[in-house]
Input
Amino acid sequence: MTDAAATQPAHVLVAPDKFKGSLTAVQVAERVSAGLRQVLPGLPVESLPVADGGDGTVAAAIAAGFDRRQTRVTGPLGEPVTAAYALRSGTAVVEMAEASGLRRLPAGVFAPLTATTFGSGELLRAALDAGAGRVILGVGGSATTDGGAGMLAALGARLLNQDGTPIGPGGGALTALTTVDLSGLDPRISQVELILASDVTNPLTGPAGAAAVYGPQKGAAPDEVVELDAALTHFASLLGPGHASTPGAGAAGGVGYAALAALGARVRPGIEVVLEVLGFAEALTRATLVITGEGSLDEQTLHGKAPAGVAAAARARGIAVVAVCGRLTLSPQALAGLGIQRAYSLLELESDPARCMADAGPLLERVAQSIARDCLR
Output
């Protein structure tokens, strides 16, 4: 702990991201809080689960006091799904993965050429119907590479082939596109503040673009990557190439591009905007120690992931930070560079990765007990 913190009564702020495939951020916070109190029963502990704009962003907002809203939308394969968004005081948090995410696909099933973002547009429209004047659009975890064409269609755009009929779903169908008509876009879009919460800096197309970098993760074979990149290039030639090279245009299979080029969105780092919406700065004023973390503290953590954002905000206030994780590959020097004084890995307690994931909850409680003994006594 810092010298300043040592002179104050202890107050712990638990602000983790999810342990992917194991525990949600809310569950991580609950387990850590429980472990701390097993050692120090009277310890003031405040939980504020976080996210970086991807999976879990809506859940984090709801845990912070936003209202949960549900609506039926179109899933990535065209089937109806029930998706949630969060709403409070005119601000909506919309998570693209709720409608168009990889987690909406059956196990082992991918649809790189036909997966659609139509449901994400429907989710945005639902937020507008609920009266949102500010919309945070988190774009991680998508199953799609359609350039956001489906999202635009759901909001009233007309994407037509040479016969004047709407093109089919997915990025592959963009090759048949001849006309982009935005005259029917929901006029409320121009009246809201739309923030694209993303840490992706990729352009829309090219070797660092949406198809080349992220297409394989969504099941695209090499020839399909080439097809999708060409389709996105064609789409941009019709919608307007001005934002195709903007950092973040390649987010979520090109949804970033559509949001920038057609919806007037602006890009902000995902963790930055999420922490702002959750009221993290206010919570920090009460904290003497912050506990953050995610499933794997690794090289990706250094590039704007949630624990990095949490640690940076705490370090700016002179507040000590420790981290919990399933797997740790960062050196002590790299952790220190983030502002994390020490990291506790579950694999230190259980070396078998499968058992570690299965027993992540109880292991986290044991780790939190160690933190209480090491940092709070």
